[in-house]
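Not sure how to ask, but would you mind making up any protein sequence you like and the tokens describing how it folds?
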Amino acid sequence: MMSEETQQQESISMQKEQISEQEMASIKTTEVEEPQVARLTEKEKEEIFKDIHFDFDKYDIRDEDKPTLKRIADWLIEHPDVKLIIEGHCDERGTNEYNLGLGDKRASTTKQYLVTLGVSMDRIQTVSYGEERPLCTEHTEECWQLNRRAHFVVIEGK
């Protein structure tokens, strides 16, 4: 003979199964259309998201880089599902601490400029790598100029 407790447990289990079956029957399946995700082509990366460069020990946007930033802002406005990371970089001259601060100012100034062009502030993150990620390792002015930059990393939406 079943104990009263065992009978109660079986009754509860059967009720749960019935409820689950009823819930499943009432759920309508609808197909959800996947949102369009902006896919960035290599050509777009090369043409739109070019690094911008800075003068020695400076973090102001140079006039020759403003058209690049305008293209980036326009593209971001057309692709609202995309976010951006701006990396601030420096050449090897100066202390690590100083260059991290300068890289941060370069990334932040670049972000602010994009915001003035209409890009939402919450879509842009900044990070400073200081002198830690050089593009060029020679000890020449030409090489140092390449390293004084803001680099753009596109984070595509889902």
Remarks:
- Helices lie at 4-26, 42-47, 66-78, 96-116, 141-147.
- The chain has one domain: 42-155.
- Residues 27-37 have pLDDT under 50 and may be disordered.
- The longest strand covers residues 83-89.
